[in-house]
Amino acid sequence: MKPAVSFCVSLVAGACALAAAIYPSMSVAARAGETPARTTVAPATDASSVSAAASAASAGIAGKLAAAPLASASSAAVGGSSAATSAGALRLPFSMLGAYQTLALRGLDDTRTVNVGVRLDRVVTAATLRLRYTYSPSLVFPMSHIKVSVNGESVATVPLEREQAGQAVTRDIVLDPRFFTDYNQLNLNLIAHYTLDHCEDPQNSALWADISPTSELILQTSAVRLPNDLALLPAPFFDRRDVSRLRLPFLLPANPDNETVRSAGVLASWFGMLADYRQARFPVVSGLPADSHGVVVGVASSLPAQLKLPAPAGPTLMVVDNPAAQDKKLLVVTGRDAAEVERAVDALVLGRAALSGPATTVAHIDIGEPRKPYDAPRWVPVDRPVTFKELVDDPAQLQVSGSNPDAIRVNLRVPADLFSWSGTGVPLDLHYRYTAPTVVNNSALAVNINDQLVKSLRLPKASAEDGQGRMQLPVLSDQPSHSTNSIDIPAFRVGSSNQLQLRFNLDSQKTGLCQGVAANPVQAAVDPDSTIDFSHFVHYAQMPNLAFFANSGFPFTRYADLSQTAVVIPPHAGAEELEAFLTMMGHMGQWTGYPSLRVQVIRPAAVASLAQTKDMLFVGGSPGVLAQTPWQAALPLTLGALQGAAGGAGGSGAPSGTVRASFSVKEHWRNGAPVAGGSAQLEQDGALAALFGFQQPGTKGRSVVVMQATSPAHLTDMLDVFERGDSVSRLQGDLALVRDGQIDSLRVGDTYLVGYVPWYARIWSSAIRHPVVLGLLGALGGLLLAIGAFVALQELAARRRGL
User: So where does this one cross the membrane (predicted)?
Assistant: First the structure.
């Protein structure tokens, strides 16, 4: 292996390990209707480790950092106004880096950390921190400041001046680019004083500064030409150092067959799994992308001639230079036929092959046994109690320090169809440790689920070193089937993504003026062996429910490999429809944490043959395509594009180029019965995208979800909805319409049930809905029991008397 290739392979291995240590999980553990996880990324390793890793990376890359110009300020000049930046600068707002909320600095010495990654194919040549902040007007200003450090190295101090106290201040801080490596920690440390006396209260309310999440890091970068080496995968096509949305073009053959589309979908699900919270979009292009990396999927005979690739000898994976874009790469997945392309994709996404060098041929691949229901790697196991160490990447994420630490956050993604027939919550067996106060005070541990308080546990003083608490979390304990509204209950009550937040509030131990312990940093931790248990839930849900699909891909993700799913695409799918298909496959991988290895791609003509064995996702923009399926009578919505030109169909007289959509809504159903007058015929000018679900006709519990628009180009309007947490929360019921950025959700069709509830649970669930009847039955049962006991005692007394 060439030296440069050898180094890059080693660098990737080291960087991946470091990424797992530094970056806590930023996946959005938000229930349906929640925004992505609003958490400040806390450091999971110390700065010395990061600095050491930076030094190792610096030493190994020939000339990479040496080429970076020296910032005059190794003493880092601080300016009072915003500096102009070139159009090519990379702007990274703190909100993009995990600091979704204000960074609150409190006390004499408090620090907050933001993690920053630099792509493997870029090198930082200049860096500016644009800091937006507000601070207390009650400080001793000559002694108070904010210290800025990168990877443990102090690079600047920001003075806190009396004239700007209490106001929003913006400062540009020039940073030395040599401090930046692949993974970086930007630390903001408040050093504050409010008096010149020797006995300051470290918890005094005057000691504060707030850093706005609109603060940003502005990086000037240059391209680094990477070798053509499969060992670098998934970089540079996906780089985990990059926190922005993944946009990866796919080049497919013209009018690709089902097998090629399926192979591309499996590959997209893998990239979507890797992108996770970043989101991913996979546009389909007709030629080599001119400004980005790209993926080429297809048999050898369909590959672009300008690639000039040798004929493959079997399933082949290659990384080649992109002839259309300097310093960009192409991932080529090919073979002599569609079956070999499929095997090459399977080898890549499973990582079974030892990939290295510019190309490899797959000799054999075994994708293993089909997945079992509800065993998606990103879902919490629901058949046993689960320890916290299984739910975090690093046990260090369960530890905090400081007098006002951020919450410990544990993401809990569970199946959407969990049903608590007994109405109880989720048992949580919590064990924790903390720096015990020496006096009785208000120190407490607040337990929250999705930012809602469940219980607050008082932390005893030093006589009790450890604490334990048992509680019931009221998660997913509501029964959505009881709703009688025309629209489903709010999505956050039936969502599949949750976040458990454990916040230690360690109160000040000061008992009087200048009386108290020294301002030593206090620590708290949750034991990794603490458990949470979803095993008493059953799988039972009322369908269709778009909230389930929009937040977790249910019911398709019930099997992580999508072995029970068929995706229906139009007979002549265009670029927009293929993009929608690939992007939805990316979402499936994001939701499950597993590539969609067994998904099936079909055309409308094959729907009838698979109706009894598959749940189906239909992705298509042309309104007339659904007419080719046997679903026509069951559709809750029909779209029809009318001619907009004057004198066109319908005699609308609309201006040329106007798109008019007509749709019919069937009867509204409530409690299993149609509501009189529930049909409507509506017409509207302009674009319209729709998402709706229903039960496949002639089946029991087999679901269909349709993504459609007045034209294929408007499918992107629906894809945009899936990338915004506030929009996802509005996808409910069985019909959602998207037009002009507005989302309307309705319940217009009949419902059906999936899953199973034991007979005893059905009886109990029915009984608790009628407490008066339940009381009467209890009284009657007690009376019958008393009569039975009376008769038995009478017979026993008669025997004793010899009667």
Answer: 772-793
